[in-house]
Amino acid sequence: MLIDSSEDVKKKDFFEITGITLLEGRYRLQQEVTGGKSSTSFFGKDEATGLEVFVKLCIFPRSGLERARFKNEIAFLKRNNFYNMIIKKTPIYLSDGELFDGRIIYLVTERVHGTLLSDWFNQRDRVRSLKERLLIAYRVFGATEHFDMQTIHRDLHVGNIILLDAEVDLYSDIPDFKTIVLDWGQSYSRAFYEYSESDDDDMVIIHQGIGKEVTNSFYNLPPETFIDWEKSGSEYAKYDSWAMGLLLYKLVTGKDLFTFKNIGEYASSIKRIDSVVSMACAEVFREAAEAGLILCAILRRLMCTRPSERMRIMDARFALWFILVEDFMPTDPQEISNFLESPAYFEGRVWKHFKVEQDNEG
């Protein structure tokens, strides 16, 4: 279709002009969703099934890295459909494709209904107990703790986590956290990078781009952002633990630990980050009453500046389960230290609801 003048273009919607309001003859774009930094998104409808969908488009990628990240999100969500059959943690992938010789890439997933964690925090009219807030931490930790090939998200914040409106069964053998993690464009897997066969593979491009620019939310970046990425080794898998430490602090105290105005202010604060974390732990201790000592210890381990000593999200989630279900709130620092080394194997207590896993060695 030819447009007669620039005035005609102004009068028409871009998506109508390009003919992409209907993808694959079935996915209808209906309502634009605000908030995307490097993509354009819509709520829509699958006219073949009547189901609601979410459509994300990368329009004229500005670089090979931006294109690689979008395609990597597609590949990750497609793979994770299998794992979603066990524990659902991401939106269900439906379709993807390219238009105009790859100048536009699109991803179609189910539309997820629930409450954004950012909106949950803004519900000022509700007074929540500490256990209610720790249950949110447990759910989010569980949804972010492990993905195939040690994939990490790298951009976890309250704006890309959805709490489903459903009860969580804390006693189920197969946990279901009723929490969905969105926006996997910044995700990374060193294993996929090391198994890449070509320099043109998306994960190779992403690996080379990490450390050269910061396009994710800088207020959740761990301190190793400012070290040589090539030296991170296997400890990169603990990258997201830092963001979970920030979330735990906010859930306990109701406040953000950091309020940096820009990336420069954050970079300059790295020199005193240990003292800031120590003060945060002291505040958590004051706010959390009987659970103060163990929550303080969890926070300190999640926010350890040395990745090699940082706590895995899965271990932190286990610890929260014992607080919530077993009312485990010890006052002995040594017992807490022993417990947090490996919560699932701790034998220092007789549990009411948990059977300690046995080590197969010996």
* Proportion of residues in β-strands: 5-15%
Extended strand count: 9
Give the count of helical stretches.
13
Largest sheet: spatial strand order = 1-2-3-4-6-5
Mean pLDDT: 88
Helices and strands, in N-to-C order? HHEEEEHEEEHHEEHHHHHHHH
Give the CA-based shape.
globular
Largest sheet: 6 strands, antiparallel
How many angstroms does the end-to-end distance come to? 74 Å
Give a verbal description of the structure.
With 362 residues, the chain is α+β, with helices and mostly antiparallel strands. The protein is built from 13 helices and nine strands. The strands form two sheets. Strands 1-2-3-4-6-5 form a six-stranded antiparallel beta sheet, covered by helices on one side. It has a three-stranded antiparallel beta sheet with strand order 7-8-9. Helix 8 packs antiparallel against helix 11 (292-302). The radius of gyration is 22 Å and the shape is globular. 35% of the residues are buried.
Q: Would you spell out the secondary-structure blueprint of this structure?
A:
Blueprint: H1 6-11, H2 14-18, E1 22-23, E2 27-33, E3 40-46, E4 52-59, H3 64-84, E5 93-99, E6 104-110, E7 115-116, H4 117-121, H5 130-144, E8 161-163, E9 179-181, H6 190-194, H7 202-209, H8 239-253, H9 263-269, H10 273-287, H11 292-302, H12 313-325, H13 333-341
Antiparallel strand pairs: 1-2, 2-3, 3-4, 4-6, 5-6, 7-8, 8-9
Short recap of the structure:
The protein has 362 residues and is α+β, with helices and mostly antiparallel strands. Helix content is 37%, strand content 13%.
Can you tag this structure with a few keywords?
single chain, 362 residues, alpha+beta, six-stranded antiparallel beta sheet, three-stranded antiparallel beta sheet, 13 helices, globular
